[in-house]
Amino acid sequence: MFNVRVYGILMNEQNQVLVADEYIRGRYYTKFPGGGLEFGEGTRDCLKREFKEEMDLDVRIGDHIYTTDFFQMSAFTPDQQIIAIYYFAHALEPIKAPLRTTKFDFDDQQMELYHRTGETETFRFIDWNDFSGEQVTLPIDKIVADLVKAGTR
After folding, report:
1. Structure pTM?
2. Residue 93: DSSP 8-state
3. Most buried pick, 46, 73, 89, 91, via CB within 10 A?
4. Can you tell me the mean pLDDT for 47-76?
């Protein structure tokens, strides 16, 4: 079984990279914004939808960066293979979602959501000088972060 995921690398005018800090089923993850492809949806439309759902943010999807070219088992569903597709994303409006400056800084409302659903997320920017594969959790994200940092597409 395959699980297709689509993620966006969004940078702001201060040369910072957007990441999502997530708390899922008792584990912490730092990853790029995005999510699962739904049936009948193209990958670019998926990423636009995910930014709108997660951040209430309209984005333009830019160049393709990377598609998984190795086997990666899902961290959440061991009988699924992850295929992840990454694009650059460009905000078409100011970000309205609350942005944090500290890793895993969830507010009371986000923690209430976690207790109801088993997952919650928040967003923050990482300065370009501090950005690398070491700043994200998931194996494919690490590869993409290092590719972006190296300027490779």
Report:
1. 0.94
2. S
3. 89
4. 96
